[in-house]
Amino acid sequence: MSASPVQQLARFGPDQCDSLSVEEARAWCRRLTRRHYENFSVLSALVPAHLRNDFAAVYAFCRWADDLGDEVGDAERALELLAWWRRELHACFNGEPRHPVFVALQPTIQQHELPIRPFDDLIRAFEQDQSVTRYETWAQVLDYCKLSADPVGRLVLMVCGESRDETTFALSDAICTALQLTNHWQDVNRDLLERDRIYLPRELTGEIPDFETRFRASAAQGYAVDRTFLAESRRVIHTCVERTWPMFEHGAKLLDRLGPSSRPVVWLLAAGGQHVLRQIEYWNYETVLHRPRLGKFSRIMLVAQAWCRARLSFRGAKRNDGE
To answer: What's the pTM value of the predicted model, to 2 decimals?
Structure first.
């Protein structure tokens, strides 16, 4: 499946939607998930085998919603498609799934008793992207993360059968918000040039003369537009990074609350984000010009560490069961 969700709308869209069985839909979502991922495959071997269809279905929902918002190229059309996606979501929760994503997702929703709100919040985030492209305050950026990132962590925990208490969710939210912020600071160049969005709040950039014009010119040409802009932008990114680290550190407490099967998965996702944040530091906060990436060797090493942690977790769990 090489076509993007937007390219598949003729077959699986508002006007026509081919029918698939649950098994066909699950296989369809698995293929989508294997082809599209950020730093790590959602279907990593660390994910328990009996949960991989569930992870694939949740990921496919997020991937489709994200692409309907970002890849259409027209805000009005994107809002129409996201409204359609919400209708499909509600049809799924009403027992009438139509789109392959929701055909695959319905058994997951039923088995794990997932609520509709996290899914709906994600759609709200992508709708917000169509109308809000600049943020005045840090608090507004955090509010956006509550819709765009925190629901994913909560869904992962619920699918894994973890506790749904407020403390567990709050710690998950801290990690997910930190991951989303890290992605923002990593992608400041691409977000501006490709999507005309700036997540750097104006309360941090407002004292820089003509910030957006100079930022756009620098990003477009690949080097600073004048002698002072790079140093000025570095200070802004540095501030953002320094505000992000405490969220990772606070969220790390979540690991002690998780079971042995889900702990390595969550550790890997958080560790990947922290590695990217360190890369931003190593690049001297110059992400207005360049996008640091998690290299193949780094990914392999992190997966290896997570695998070792998984082995230790399972051995510890077995010892505790034997006592």
So the answer is: 0.90
Render each residue's pLDDT in the chain as its tens digit; 323 residues. Answer: 567 888 899 999 999 999 999 999 999 999 988 876 554 455 467 788 899 999 999 999 999 999 999 999 899 999 999 999 999 999 999 999 999 999 999 999 999 999 999 999 999 999 999 999 999 999 999 999 999 999 999 999 999 999 999 999 999 999 999 999 999 999 999 999 999 999 999 999 999 999 999 999 999 999 999 999 999 999 999 999 999 999 999 999 999 999 988 888 898 889 889 999 999 999 999 999 999 876 664 555 555 555 465 555 544 444 454 45
Domain with CATH 1.10.600.10 in the chain: 19-131, 132-310
183 close to 254: Cβ distance less than 8 angstroms:
no
Residue located via tokens 């919603």: 65
Q: Which CATH number fits domain 132-310: 2.40.128.110, 1.10.10.60, 2.160.10.10, 1.10.600.10?
A: 1.10.600.10
d(CA 174, CA 317): 26
Residue type (1 letter), 85: W
**CATH tag, 19-131:** 1.10.600.10
Q: How far is CA 19 from CA 14, 97, 120, in A?
A: 13, 10, 24
